[in-house]
Amino acid sequence: MTSAVPFDRFDLKILERLQREGRCSNVDLANAVGLSPSPCLLRTKRMQAVGLIRSYGADIALEKLGDHVVVFSEITLGSHTPQDFRKFEESAAKHEEIIECYNVSGGYDYLLKIVAPGIGYFQALMDKMLEDDMGIERFASRIVLRQPLNRREYPLNIIASRKRWE
């Protein structure tokens, strides 16, 4: 766990707004959160400087680009030394189809989110990953049939709450 960055309610409002609309102007952002433009810009730049705001991006409608498949793959490594984890992670990073990679606890070591143009492409990718000797002992994959919920915004009020429900 990393240590939390200090913030106040205005910072939280800025973050919430930028999650929903990253392209808004500083003036619009300031109006939305109840600050004047200059302090709003200073706060936004400070949060960027400390790494709280990592980047800005567009939400792409993949279905409008063409057919694709989203697959979650559970990966189990054959060996569990720090070098084995590092080797797998470095190898996985070379495959741009792997858009998310989580080292998890439980019955397997990694959960990958993979986006590919089709099932055949996905299978060829997995074959290549096995051939590349990334340390994979076994994998199981789940093909996404539909996505009934897709929240792009984190629950900032809950995460940043001073109350802890632990």
From TrEMBL:
<dbReference type="GO" id="GO:0043200">
    <property type="term" value="P:response to amino acid"/>
</dbReference>
<dbReference type="Pfam" id="PF01037">
    <property type="entry name" value="AsnC_trans_reg"/>
</dbReference>
<dbReference type="InterPro" id="IPR036390">
    <property type="entry name" value="WH_DNA-bd_sf"/>
</dbReference>
<dbReference type="InterPro" id="IPR036388">
    <property type="entry name" value="WH-like_DNA-bd_sf"/>
</dbReference>
<dbReference type="GO" id="GO:0005829">
    <property type="term" value="C:cytosol"/>
</dbReference>
<feature type="domain" description="HTH asnC-type">
    <location>
        <begin position="7"/>
        <end position="68"/>
    </location>
</feature>
<keyword id="KW-0805">Transcription regulation</keyword>
<keyword id="KW-0238">DNA-binding</keyword>
<keyword id="KW-0804">Transcription</keyword>
<dbReference type="Pfam" id="PF13412">
    <property type="entry name" value="HTH_24"/>
</dbReference>
<dbReference type="InterPro" id="IPR019888">
    <property type="entry name" value="Tscrpt_reg_AsnC-like"/>
</dbReference>
<dbReference type="InterPro" id="IPR000485">
    <property type="entry name" value="AsnC-type_HTH_dom"/>
</dbReference>
<dbReference type="InterPro" id="IPR011008">
    <property type="entry name" value="Dimeric_a/b-barrel"/>
</dbReference>
<protein>
    <submittedName>
        <fullName>DNA-binding Lrp family transcriptional regulator</fullName>
    </submittedName>
</protein>
<dbReference type="InterPro" id="IPR019885">
    <property type="entry name" value="Tscrpt_reg_HTH_AsnC-type_CS"/>
</dbReference>
<dbReference type="InterPro" id="IPR019887">
    <property type="entry name" value="Tscrpt_reg_AsnC/Lrp_C"/>
</dbReference>
<dbReference type="GO" id="GO:0043565">
    <property type="term" value="F:sequence-specific DNA binding"/>
</dbReference>
